Amino acid sequence: MRFSRLLIPTMKEAPSDAVLTSHILLLRAGFIQTSGGSGLYNWLPLGKITLDKVRAIVKDELDKAGCNEVHLPMVTSLALWEETGRADKFGKELLRFKDRHENSFTLSPTNEEAMVNLVRQTVKSYKQLPLNVYQINWKFRDEVRPRFGLMRGREFLMKDAYSFHATTEDMEREFALMEETYKKIFTRLGLDFKVVEADSGAIGGAGSKEFMVLADSGEDTIMVCDSCDFGANVEVVAEDESKCPKCGGNLSQTKGIEAGHIFQLGTVYSEPMKAEFLNENQKLEPFIMGTYGIGVSRLLAGIIEQNHDEKGCVWTKESAPFKVDIIVAKAKNSEQMEAGEKLYAQLQAKGVDVLLDDRADKKTGFGVKMKDFELIGMPYAVVIGNDISEGKVELITRDGLEKEEMDLDSLVETIMEKLA
RNA sequence: CGGAGUGUAGCGCAGUCUGGUAGCGCACCUGGUUUGGGACCAGGGGGUCGAAGGUUCGAGUCCUUUCACUCCGACCA
To answer: For residues A199 and A183, is the Cβ–Cβ distance under 8 A?
Structure first.
């Protein structure tokens, strides 16, 4: 895409009410903007592109693991919530309203009931099991205190998956598969993370694990073992405990952002909702369930909390809105502009997501383009400037801001190697 | 929900104590000069000062009420 045609309102100064690094940078770099209410954000073009990239990675790995993507309405009948008693349990966080016929509804904060409803009216036999259905959809929680930008908004994008099984053993197999799948997703996104034992909270069920993006700004405190892979939220391990319950090693405390959470549910939803299937002995049994969530929009905040410097965002390769920013230093110089256009077409032909900074207005000089590149944080920039007459350009790596002079002839090849 | 703050142009702020015609920087528009690190000069547009009520000849400023937002806490897939 062309910078001149994209709405990218970068700012020198951030709104004074933003305190968290990721919040400040995402606002300043023009990814999101406030939308007139606490915890509500407009997703501007760069933010939408990036969110879609992260979403695509989540979808790709889930589909490979055999999950079925579906879409449920954001508006759920309150009657479903009353079947499990969670209408009361969720309290005011559940935003309720009535339609013109005075029927009660809610904006979905999570969808256990709705998904169980989908399955109970579709799946009748053990032969249809196991089944893992998911959606990536906007959720709404009327948080007591929304804060920190995308970290705790009221509206947020969440991937919520639900698995249905005939036996506990099969559910545990799926739980392990989801843990591996989540590890692949977090690894592809370039995140430093830790899987920890967690409390099941309002969702209920037996075992649960959280995927923590390690960051000092995280809202959760976790205990990690220095000699094995054990980790736990302080909710489930005493904070003063110093020995690992698994191997006896030393525990130390750190902070994390909860970006994923997987649960072994059992029948806590299927029983009250009478979601049952016929087993091979022709007997009705409730589904054994698991549920698996990822805060997709929160992941963006997590990526930036972990990857930034004093100049701006440093997106990881798979999350970046564009992989390469072509900076045409003087857009009115036809030699530079033509070289930029040619490189843009070449990279596009190779399937590289590339941004051409073709801005030619007199306010937007070389300095502005560089500052925007650094603030937005694409992995690479190619500067096409005065040396183009000798066939030379500059390649800048955002992480570390290392610059190297390159021959334009071999540039595409070099970039493809770096992106591989 | 408890505690602490803040609301003045798109963003950052001054002005409020001590009432007297609404200001500054950035951004935006016009013209010119610039052009490898957020340029310069000149001119210009944009405001019911969060809202309502009150005091006063006169309120951004004083009083009352209210709303919104932020931070700390409690809460939280």
So the answer is: no
Chain B: nucleotides below 7 Å from protein CB are 1, 11-13, 25-29, 32-39, 68-77
User: Which residue do the tokens 């209408």 mark?
Assistant: A87
Backbone angles phi, psi at A277, to 5 degrees: -130, 165
Cα–Cα dist A92/A104, whole Å = 14
The angle at the Cα of A37, spanning A34 to A40, to the nearest 5 degrees, equals 60
Residue A398 pLDDT level (bands cut at 50, 70, 90): very high
ipTM: 0.94
CB count within 10 Å of CB A225 equals: 19
> Which two tokens mark A419?
């992106």
Per-residue pLDDT tens for A69-125?
999 999 999 999 999 999 988 888 899 999 999 999 999 999 999 999 999 999 999
Beta carbons of A96 and A105 less than 8 angstroms apart: yes
> Sign of the CA dihedral A369, A374, A378, A379?
positive
pTM over 0.90: yes
Domains parsed from chain A with CATH numbers: 3-309 (3.30.930.10), 324-419 (3.40.50.800)
Helix (H) or strand (E) holding A277: strand A276-278
Interatomic distance A98 CA / B44 C1' (Å): 51
3-state SS record for A195-263: EEECCCHHHCCCCEEEEEEECCCCCEEEEEECCCCCEEECCCCCCCCCECCCCCCEEEEEEEEEEEEEE
How many angstroms separate the CA atoms of A41 and A31, rounded?
Answer: 10
Q: Within 323-342 of chain A, which residues have Cβ less than 7 Å from strand B? A: 329-330, 332
